[in-house]
Specification:
The protein is an alpha/beta fold. The strands form two sheets. The protein has a six-stranded mixed β-sheet with strand order 6-7-8-3-9-10, sandwiched between helices. The radius of gyration is 35 Å and the shape is elongated. Bound molecules: adenosine-5'-triphosphate. The site of adenosine-5'-triphosphate (ATP) has 11 residues, from α10. Keywords: ATP-binding, Membrane, Nucleotide-binding, Transmembrane, Transmembrane helix. GO terms for molecular function: ATP binding. It is a multi-pass membrane protein.
């Protein structure tokens, strides 16, 4: 967040500066054509008075007018295209940042707010990065040229006009400063509203079940109202800026007309000079309006940049190996040695050590014991503060994250699915899988029967009527997806929590089959899985209390017995 918003905004134009330069030239050309017109009009009027031929000045006026029009139209199109291109570049950069961010950095942000920053804030930037930059650069030059031409036409009128200009411009800058703050506030409020909507959408069933539609509606409406009020404030200040700009020109026109008329009466000025001067006064409107709308857009853009930068500076996960080449340790599977980890000040893991070799290891423990945290460290979503993790004898910090994750297959707690169709969802992460392998894996997770009932089978779109998936079906598909990766280690977080007895029995069997050829580490509250495991590790308050079989832990660990009994599953072994 070190660069100022203005520097960051300028940074976004990298790669397009030559195009911006060409557009500035094009705009200067089209404005020059416009600025020539009053002088040619004066020539027309003088020709009328002196009786010289009218044709040359009228023809020149037409040519100059047409050239200005063509150049302005072309420039308008090119500016629009440039804006789209620059916003595309910003969005592409942001998407890259988001996807390479650290899990914790991104998941702690409300999704709605992230969406607002990537969506509406970047849309605001579009205008700023094209029209505002180019026209904002050209407008002062055009204004200067107009003023110089006016000064050459009549110095007294010019001084009068300058006084009005200074007063109104000062007022306009003051309002612009307030507009800048108001815009930032309005964008923040839109982000807040989207966050509230996202919260409700995620827990929509709970909202219905608890009958809280009305209170949620009130809360979101309050957010929407706050966004509305902030937007109205922006509109008010925007209108004020616009009004000041137009009002200033009206006053200038009247003052110039009055003073000019007096000067004609006293013989100090020609009528054709006053007409040309008045034309320049009307032309003043253009660079002043363009300048003020460029300033407005720049102000909005800077507010947007500030919000976009919050995402744009998200540090990426480092992906180079960080451990010194300490050499291999003779062990297989996963070995966790004395892991310490904290999210803040309080450690979540306090010297966790465990070994999971080929076979099924089930990690159990009370809620908040640190089970998911252990899996996060194995996947290197985070690195431990102390201790190390070995994968088949190698310190995982000696592997790139990509390499490490390629050797693991992970099923996260909510088992979210990615992909448009069921086929894409199951092949996610293993797209090279042969079509012939799919029936077997679907059978293994007991989804073959359900898929057979769908008219479009695996091509059924997820989320559409035909494929509304239950939590259990989603979990089974997530396990199938992980199995297809044929990784060295299968890591599962509560992968059987939503299954009925029959599907669970099938899935447990599949996990046992997997455990016959690879290391399977499963966090589970289901003691039916623990009962079939090669070993069970009991974690409590970030420490391993005991390791053994289900029967051994039932006998020796009161906490394990309490947890097993509380799960309400099949009766534990007799106590000693
Ligand atoms: N991103 C985070 N920031 C701060 N604290 C966190 C974060 N993630 C987890 N924690 C805390 O770390 C502790 C361990 O959480 P973890 O999710 O590992 O427990 P768990 O054993 O998997 O629990 P459960 O069985 O309920 O899923 C909890 O106290 C939790 O509140």
């Amino acid at each position: 967040m070190s660069a100022s918003p203005a520097a960051a905004l300028w940074g976004y134009t990298r790669g397009a500066r030559a195009r911006i330069g060409c557009l500035v030239l094009l705009e200067l050309l089209s404005n020059s054509a416009v600025l020539l017109q009053p002088l040619v009009a004066r020539w027309v009027l003088d020709s009328l008075e002196t009786g010289e031929g009218l044709m040359p000045p009228v023809l020149l006026l037409a040519v100059v007018g047409m050239s200005g029009l063509v150049l302005a139209t072309f420039s308008h199109y090119l500016l629009g295209r440039l804006g789209q291109r620059l916003v595309f570049d910003v969005r592409r950069g942001l998407v890259g940042r988001l996807l390479h961010a650290r899990v914790d950095d991104l998941t702690r942000r409300p999704v709605g707010d992230v969406l607002a920053r990537v969506g509406s804030d970047t849309t605001l930037l579009q205008q700023t990065l094209s029209s505002a930059l180019v026209r904002g650069a050209v407008a002062p030059l055009v204004l200067l040229a107009t003023l110089v031409l006016m000064a050459l036409l009549d110095l007294v009128l010019f001084v009068v006009l300058l006084l009005v200009l200074v007063v109104t411009t000062t007022a306009e800058w003051y309002v612009l400063h307030r507009l800048h703050k108001a815009t930032e506030d309005a964008q923040d409020r839109v982000g807040g509203m989207l966050t509230s909507i996202q919260r409700v959408l995620i827990a929509f069933r709970t909202v219905k079940a608890f009958g809280t539609e009305a209170s949620e509606e009130r809360a979101i409406t309050d957010d929407a109202r706050a966004a509305y009020r902030a937007g109205v404030r922006v509109a008010r200040l925007d209108a004020l800026v616009e009004g000041l700009a137009i009002g200033a020109l009206e006053i200038m026109f009247l003052v110039v007309l009055a003073v000019g008329a007096m000067r004609i009466v006293s013989g100090e000025m020609q009528v054709s000079d006053l007409v040309a001067f008045l034309l320049y006064v009307t032309y003043l409107r253009d660079p002043v309006e363009t300048g003020s709308s460029a300033a407005t857009s720049l102000s909005e853009g800077l507010a947007a940049v500030r919000r976009v930068r919050h995402l744009d500076v998200l540090p990426a996960e480092r992906d180079e190996p960080v451990a010194p080449a300490a050499g291999r340790v003779p062990c297989t599977g996963l070995r966790l040695e004395d892991l310490w980890f904290s999210h803040g000040t309080e450690p979540v893991l306090r010297g966790t050590s465990l070994t999971a070799e080929q076979g099924l290891t089930v990690l159990v423990g009370p809620s908040g014991a640190g089970k998911t945290t252990v899996l996060s460290l194995i996947e290197r979503f985070d690195d431990p503060d102390r201790g190390r993790i070995l994968l088949n004898g190698e310190d995982i910090r000696g592997l790139t994250r990509k390499e490490l994750r390629g050797r693991l297959a992970y099923v996260e707690q909510e088992a979210p699915l990615l992909g448009r169709t069921l086929r894409e969802a199951v092949l996610y992460g293993a797209p090279e899988t042969a079509e012939a392998d799919l029936p077997e894996v679907l059978r293994a997770v007991a989804l073959d029967g359900w898929v057979a009932t769908l008219p479009d089978g695996l091509d059924t779109e997820i989320g559409e009527r035909g494929a509304r998936m239950s939590g259990g079906q989603r979990q089974r598909l997530a396990v199938a997806r992980a199995v297809l990766r044929r990784a060295e280690v299968l890591v599962l977080d509560e992968a059987t929590s939503q299954l009925d007895g029959r599907s669970e029995a099938l899935l447990v069997q599949e996990l046992l089959d997997q455990a016959a050829v690879r290391t399977v580490l499963a966090v589970s509250h289901r003691y039916s899985l623990a009962a079939r495991a090669d070993q069970v590790v009991l974690l409590d308050q970030g420490k391993v209390l005991a390791t053994g079989t289900h029967a051994e832990l039932l006998r020796s660990q009161p906490l394990y017995r309490v947890l097993a009994e509380a799960s309400g599953e099949e009766a534990p072994l007799p106590r000693t």
